[in-house]
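A quick aside before the break. I want you to see a complete sequence-to-structure record at least once, exactly as it would be stored in a machine-readable document. Don't worry about memorizing anything.
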Amino acid sequence: MPESKSKFLIPAVGAAVVVVGSIAAYTYFKGSPGGTSDALGSAKVVPSTALMATYITTDSEAWAKLQQFGTPEAQKLVAKGLEDFNKQIFSDSNVSYEKDIKPWAGSVMIAVLPPNPVKSAQLKVPSGTTNVPTNLQQESNILIVVGIKDKLSALNFANKLKSQKGVKLQESDYQGQKIIETTQNGKPTYSVVLNDSQLVLAPEKQAVEKAIDTFKGQSSFANKEGASSILKGVDLKNSLAQIYVPDYAGMIQQLTAGNPQAKQLPPQTLTQLKQIKSVVAGVGVDDAGVRVKAIANLDPQLNKFQYQSSPGNIVGQFPADTFALISGNGISRGWEVLVEQSKDYPEMKQALEQARGQLKFANIDLDKDIFGWMNGEFAFGAIPSNQGVLASVGFGGALVFDTSDRKTAEATLTKLDTLAKAQQINVANRNIGGKNVTEWQIPRQGALLAHGWLDQDTVFVALGGPIAEVVSDRKNPSLDTSDAFKAVTGSLQKPNGGYFYLDMDKTKTVPLINSFVSSNADTITILNSIRGLGFTAISPDKSTSELEVLLALKPTAK
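That is the input. The structure line, written in tokens, reads:
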């Protein structure tokens, strides 16, 4: 962090320090009592023009739950990162989080207000320039509300700030409230204390003035249309933070308008965005790890997607050592929605027509032969193997589909086999575990691809001959019976639309990730503390969509 940035945070009466991470880190390791202002109380001083707001709790019991997870090496790494962070933040000052900020700072709400246009004086245009930009960049506009749980401690800290070198304080009155302008290195921060219980601060004076107007009776975020219903938050154990977006499309529109690099949103995109009316999300900690839940309130008139829950039976077709899996239901329905929506997007429609045209040369109908029969449950899984063509990558994959149209599926696979033969690939049949499997074979390396039927309605396509063997010949336990899969997905909502599952506890998973993504020793240490990642989605009705994510963590060794 640059030195100027570090010095800018300190005059912000400590609250900015709280917001950017110190409060979270300290409560993780040491805990602190909860603040006096809940989300609704904070939202009452946030102007109704706010695009979104985030509420962060400092409740010690919630943050302390994190201490039950992580390897000793990972906890040492986080502790060192905390120490380094605070050395940067509090350099050139005698401010201590433990002594000066922690005793008085309660829970925090961060609100994003509509961006402010750049002032004309800030726009430097070279002389002789003929094309002056009309779409000026807009600045982000943040308002922070911090609950004050100990007035005396807050007063002592304010007095201590006055003694800092290079800090200039200036007072002004607005609506009978005292606004403090704190300036260091030319960067001002504006703050006001409302009702002796809430500290409000922002880098722009106008934002603080709007908060005072709201405190005096103007419309607030708490009673804004769409906000009041989501401020109750998402039901989570040991909630750490909640995010509220009362007008999703409106927020995207305003933020996009403030970005000169962003293209103007076309009407079709706005229509898509308006499917989502509002969003509320939360992060919490329970016995399994860190859990995220998000709820989107949808416009049922604009929502074209037909949700259908997935039985989950197809997971049992994969071996227990499958380390990654994506499952769902009804690819054909999703494809139909995509085709329908492409009519409003010329570029997407053109791409679809090109794909259809290219496959027609191979006598394949993209809509019927590829997607038309994929009307049941499906899953794609990554399975470790170091044999044959998979020796160099260490894993292969399998696609498994349930279908009610076996005839079309078989016809499609036959067409693909014919194409392979035309490319001088050896296509041969062999029996694996009593099942007839067709393989595309490469000399001296074995099968590159294989496909076959696991039962009357379930077909698989395997990338690599060894994967075809483990999927076809079910001698070993299946994925749905493994402890790892149960630990990562067992507590997710059911029934659901399918899973994303990643097992980080497999001996080969982290090395595989490291082979594709450049990782240092610290990253590997953190990854080794994660048991797995799982998420799922449900849609109880056409007006609601819910997402749940679990970052399953390894418990601390006792």
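Two observations worth writing down. Residues 1-36, 119-138 have pLDDT under 50 and may be disordered. The CA atoms of residues 61 and 238 lie 7 Å apart. We'll return to this after the break.
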